[in-house]
Amino acid sequence: MGRKQLAGIIAAAGLGVLAVGYGAAYAFTGDKVPGETTVLGVSLGGLSEAEAKAKLTGAVKDKLDTPLKLKAGEKTVTLKPADAGLRLDVDATVEAAGAGRSLNPGRMWQVMTGGEAVEPVVIADKTKLDAAIGRVAKLIDQPATEGSITFEGVTPVQHQPAAGITLDKAGAAEAITKGYPFAGEPIALPADVTEPGAGNPDIAKALKEYAEPAMSGPIRLTVGEKFVELKPAELAPALKLTGNADGKVVPSLDAAKLEPLFKERFENLETEATDASFKIVGGKPQVVPAVDGQIVARDKVVPAILATLPKPAGERKVSIGLGKSKAKFTTEQAQALGIKEVMGAYTTYFPYAEYRNVNIGTAARKINGTLLKPGEMFSLNKIVGERTRENGFTEGNIINGGKFVLDLGGGVSQSATTTFNAAFFAGLKDVEHKAHSVYIDRYPVGREATVAWPSVDLRFQNDSGKGIFVETIFTKSTPGKKGALTVKIWGTKVWDITAGASERYNFRSPGTVYNTEPGCRPQAPTTGFDIKIYRYFAKNGTRVKTESFTTNYNAADLIKCEPKPQPPKPPTTPGPPNNEKPAGTDR
To answer: Coiled coil located at which positions (predicted)?
Structure first.
């Protein structure tokens, strides 16, 4: 055998050995995970791909839904993984750990000798994650707090500045994804720190140079030849010094807080503007012109005070001129409302009772002069107010549960009924009205209104397109004469209104009630019934439309303040003499 042949045999033998070794290595390593591999602290080394997936799934199952603790600066918040659209891709994670068959000798060597901690593969729903980070940012983000100086009494108090924080949303998304599933330690989220413009030295300087001198004495404010003094204790609650982005500490006065003080002190210096209004002159509405006022200009007085506050005694003076104050409702606006004629009017009468004079008269005075611009709503409860003694009312009869009882404001419904009918015949939009529960014969049947504070109201809307003005004319009752209330609604007449009514129907009979309780008041009975009311709208003699509503009256019981009569006992039939037996008893 020659040398070449021997060398070939040796080489072939060597290759055979290598092939056998390679095959043995491939068979040994199979699809196993490298020996030292861990994922989330779970050892997967030496396991097959299927075994590794099963072990990892079981080991982290309870962690997958555990809320993540997130921390940025000093703030800590929690986030549910499902809300952020986070899930663990077990298949991809095990694959990344090195599982799976390979003919690569290097990979075989790694299975037998290598392995390391492998990061899990986490998949995030971007839409959900972005939305979750937005919610987290609202909890974490905080602007820098500028330092400030306020006052306790006349003593300046420093409030130190503080840095702000703004969440880095892109970095937070990465940190949250890397930190899932939760491993026990809060996940640090990246955030930017914003510093306040003015620092502690700036606040300390403002305290010495402005805040302390500001409280050193009163300020004299001169208007013409008159003056007022404003004391430090009066100005302090509205005064504040605040740092800004430029590093300056700027003083400010809250004008709204000072307005009550200004009104009181400037009372003799100012004349307030008066809005245009209406009054009846010679039986016709007339515009009362608006009057502009003169006021200490607030836009000038506040800067002047701020400029004067740090000055020393002897220089704490400021001179201010008067500015014009325009009326909110001008003469021209009033004239344009077209209030010139009676649109609707009605009169009701009432018998003498002093409480009626008080209550009906008080309500009438409050209603008188009501002005409604186009589209505005009339509310009797809002205009008249709660029926209390302080508001000018006394006790009178009201209907409660079908009985007449005493209560504050009794009789005000006469004002409501009269006003309702004036609005009815003015053609205005009926928004809310409620008839009495029982019929009172001094009111127009079916066409009346009651009120009760605050639940039952009379409301109508000015839908005429022009303004309306309500006039009331009240005449007191006397023991020998009825009182009267007339309500006129002035404006621009739109409709000719007439009223109609059905026959009364669905009658209900009253009962009889006997009452022996103290304070019982006898009451006459009233029959209950229903009636339908019509309102006809016409223009130039031609009917254009019809509205209707139904009024239901309950029966009012007859109330007698006495015991209920007992039914008579049946007559007693005399029995037979003692020595006789009743007929038919013998058997």
So the answer is: none
